[in-house]
Structure formats: C-alpha cells, structure tokens
Write the structure tokens for this entry.
Amino acid sequence: MNVKMRVLTVFLFALLTITGVTQENVPTANIRDTGPAGGIIFYDKGNNSGGWRYLEAAPVEAETTAVFSVRNTRVENTQEGVGNGRRNTQLISELYDRTAGEWDTAAQYCDELVFNGFNDWFLPSKDELDFMYGNLKRRNLGDFKNDRYWSSSMYLNEVYWQNFRDGTINNTYNLNNQFYVRPIRQVAGPN
C-alpha cells in the first residue's frame, strides 16, 4: 500500500470512528494494511465473529519495556491460541490490580494504554505474537527490535516470550525480566 493510500485509510477509519459509524462498515483490510489506530493489520481470521476479524499491532511509538510480574505472581487459565490475548490480559490485570506490589507490568501497560484515541489494547497471546513476528517483523515492517517480546500466555509457572531476532519461542520462570511489549487490538470488519 503506498503512502497516499495509507493516509487515506487512516483518515477514513478516523472519520468513521468520529461520526459513530461502527467498524463493521469499514472496507476489507489486508495483512500489512494500516489499521484504524494507525498500527498494522497482522492477522485476518476470515470472518467477523466474536466482534472482531483482524488483529492490529500498535505503532512502534506505543512500544515499551516492562516486567511480566514484579513479584513473580503466576496467573492461571491463560491460553496460547489466537483470540485469547485480550482475555489473558484481563485475567492478568485483574489479579495484579488486587495483588499488592504488582504495578507497571506488561499486561497492565497494555490494559491501561490509550493510543491514537483507542483504549482496547492488550498483550498478545503466544500464537498472536508469533503471527506478528511472521507477518510483520520477518518482512521488516513495524520497526520491531531484534530482541525479546512478552506474550500473555503462561505454561505451568512459565511465561512465553518470543525472540524477534530469529523467531524462536521460549518460556521463563523469571517474570521480572525487562522484555519489550507491543500492544495489539482486535478490529471488526465486514461480515
């Protein structure tokens, strides 16, 4: 997509949002198109079920580094698959908001983020993070670092993270490592 088309797409998404038109009325997007929040569409599930069709990675300006947990607090019932990052982030943030001493964590950052007028960001699940790597980073899109990025998925007592230098997926017990955080959001599309 050329620069003029990206600017037009962002403008149309902003106009539709301002005028109250739902995102279901936006045109079909393609992987690597600019999303409504100015990020990049990196996943299309093919239909508008569950209130969303696409996943949008936030622009690099919304990226930060954070720990997963200040006190190595474990969270049960997180999932790895695409479509689970939002719920994982809610589970983590709710637990950490009730836990004394849990602040400034990766999930809390995403949950509290307001960027380009959107406040529905979350920490990607393991599989969502892998799609972001494959569809964006491997194509040199999104200005990702050649470094480690947190996911919101836990396995037993470990959290998955992905090395964006080579795409390897790992997990760690040490939840207070400082890794990169790239928020994502769900975007509705046409039915």
Remarks:
- The chain has four helices and eight strands.
- The beta strands are 40-49, 52-57, 64-66, 148-155, 158-163, 169-172, 179-181, 184-187.
